[in-house]
Amino acid sequence: MSIKDKLSEHFEIEDACRHYLESVIDGISDPVMIIDDGYNIQLMNEAAQKSLEHHLIADIEHPKCYEVSHHRSVPCDGLKHPCPLKKVMETKKSISVMHDHLDSEGKARSVELTISPLSDRDEKFIGLMEVARDITHDIEIKEKLKKQKDITQYQAHHDTLTGLSNRTLFVDRLGQSIKKAYRSESKVAVLFIDLDNFKEINDSFGHSFGDEVLKAVTRRFLAIIRRTDTLARIGGDEFAMMIDDELKDSAVVIDIVHEMMQIMREPFVIEHHSLYVTLSIGISLYPEDAAVADILLKNADAAMHRSKEEGRNTYQFYTEDMTEKAFERIVMETSLREALDAEEFIVHYQPQINAETEMLVGMEALVRWEHKSMGLISPAKFIHLAEETGLIVDLDRQVMRAAMRQVSAWYAEGLDPGILALNLAMKQLQQEDFIPMLEAMIQETGCKAKWLELEVTEGKIMKRPEQAIETLRKISDLGILLAIDDFGTGYSSLAYLKRLPIDKLKIDRSFLIDVPHDEDDVAIVRAVIALATSMNMSMIAEGVETAQQRDFLLQNGCSDIQGYFYARPMPAEKMTTLLRERSATGSKRSF
Ligand code: C2E
Ligand code: CA
Ligand code: CA
Asked: pTM for the full model?
């Protein structure tokens, strides 16, 4: 074979090899470049050639890798953007690195470069192969996911309304503070803070107004807490605060509590309404009261409930007996629900007597809880809780239905129970379906509207008279009587009293206890009687226990009386017996 033939065969083989190699790298979808140690591109696959198009490349026949990847006229260097090829040239080892490239439109792309050294048959370094995978999109997705995760994380630990920590984060931080306090032998105090009248605010002004109140309260708290204290909103109107910062002395806690109560003295002005918020606070301390975060918080909660019992707007330190109470309360709340389902509530009836004639004029339905193991439970023990939890709506309806059925049965038998007085929680009046429900119940039980009287407590009605007026009118239009319960204990505006369709005032028991000895009470009762008379309302005195009280009332013009003096509340069966006796003998004094 001639040299010429040999050469041409050599070139043919080289050509075939090159062609073969090209088709292999073209099959790779990421840009691949073979680069020599002078940054000259020896070979590119199709994907890499795409980025050649718009570039300013000095010599298009001999492009440099940095011209193609970076639109630069010199290789990458420096700490910020080091040349990854250099490293491979030095170490002769493959690497994978993140690197920034510019695309054909000059936009920055993040690429993952895999660079491997190439050597000839004698292991002599002859260049590099660079595979560039564009991961810009992946990174964007990852960042988005991370952001989303951060947001979710934040939301999982914060209260969206106030931006404060939530219970989870609070308990977590409390746990950390306890650990720290254990090491430094210091104390941690937990304050459980409950707004006293928030429920009423929410019920009267609506939820979005309530939200504004919570935000305003939060701002006041934040203005006084120290950097090291943690404030959290852990429930509707419940906040918790943690005081650590190497706390040695619980006197510091009292100072803070006083300050919190102090800043509430100024009214809040929200949507032109000016209102006051008071706080009930419970305090527990590490290590005295508990060594674990959630128990410490629970104990502060129990102490807060004691503050409520003490008449609100006050604070209490936790004591051990509170745990028992708190437990009782939880048991009560759960069983209250169950009792409703099991219809364990029964109605007792207390006679209302005209003291002049000694005739029965009516009776008040008073609920009792017939508990499986605890026996008869007085409403004083559970009405408040039922109101707090909203269970009062269903409870009142059960009582209303049972009492209406009973009264209908008495009338059907030819007995005369007089007017049936029913207690109504304010929440009941606020139910949208109250009027249709009431009408349906009257129908269903065979009751007559004129046999009924609904009692609403003064304090509750006067808190939001405008709102109550419409419903009261509708009730009155049905022919049902309306009475204001516990009259004298709230602050009635006479202007409203005139506008409300009220038929009767019930003089509260508290004014009668010391009558006729206490001058002030005597004056109050006389004033209430005069007020009712001048407003053309009827009246009844409740809680009358003695003949002196009765005589005083009679002398002063109030003849209707409800009280132990005549009769205690009694079960329906007993009332039936009495009504029958009375009807048979015609006797007035059956009670
Ligand atoms: P109230 O409406 O003021 O009911 C009068 C309370 O005074 C009753 O207590 C009654 O047993 C008691 N009482 C009557 N006469 C005398 C007396 O001479 N001396 C003394 N010391 N007490 C007397 P009770 O039955 O324990 O009810 C307490 C409160 O629970 C009621 O006060 C009422 O506010 C609420 N309540 C009772 N039943 C219901 C109900 O069905 N629904 C609602 N929402 N509240 C109810
Ligand atoms: Ca009542
Ligand atoms: Ca009352």
From this structure: 0.56
CATH superfamily to which 333-584 belongs: EAL domain (3.20.20.450)
Around ligand 1, the residues with Cβ closer than 6 Å are 350, 366-367, 378-380, 383, 392, 396, 399, 423, 425, 485-486, 542-545, 562-564, 569
CATH of 158-318, one of 3.40.367.20, 3.30.70.1560, 3.40.50.300, 3.30.70.270: 3.30.70.270
Residue 329 has, within 13 A of its CA and on its CB side, a CA count of 20
Minimum CA distance residue for ligand 1 atom 10: 569
What local confidence, expressed as pLDDT, does residue 316 receive? 92
Kindly report, residue by residue over 507-561, the tens digit of the pLDDT: 999 999 999 999 999 999 999 999 999 999 999 999 999 999 999 999 999 999 9
Give the separation between CA 561 and CA 2, rounded to whole angstroms.
Answer: 139
Q: Which of 348, 346, 345 is nearest to 567 (CA)?
A: 348
Q: How far is the CA of 97 from the centre of ligand 3 (A)?
A: 81
Alpha helices in 92-197 (DSSP H): 136-157, 167-184
pLDDT tens sequence across 354-397:
999 999 999 999 999 998 877 888 998 889 888 878 899 999 99
Domain spans of the chain?
3-138, 158-318, 333-584
Residue type, 78: G
DSSP 37-80: TTSBEEEE-HHHHGGGTT---S-TTS-BHHHHHH--SS---TTT
Ligand 1 atom with least separation from CA of 455: 2
Nearest to 479 by CA among 433, 458, 448, 502: 448
Distance of CA 354 to the CA centre of its chain: 49
* Cα-to-centroid distance, 508 and ligand 3 (Å): 6
What is residue 104's three-state secondary structure? coil
Q: Considering only the top CATH level, what class is 3-138? A: alpha beta
Ligand 3 centroid to residue 485 C-alpha, Å: 5
Question: Are 402 and 347 within 8 A, CB to CB?
Answer: yes
Q: What tokens were used for 159?
A: 């209260």
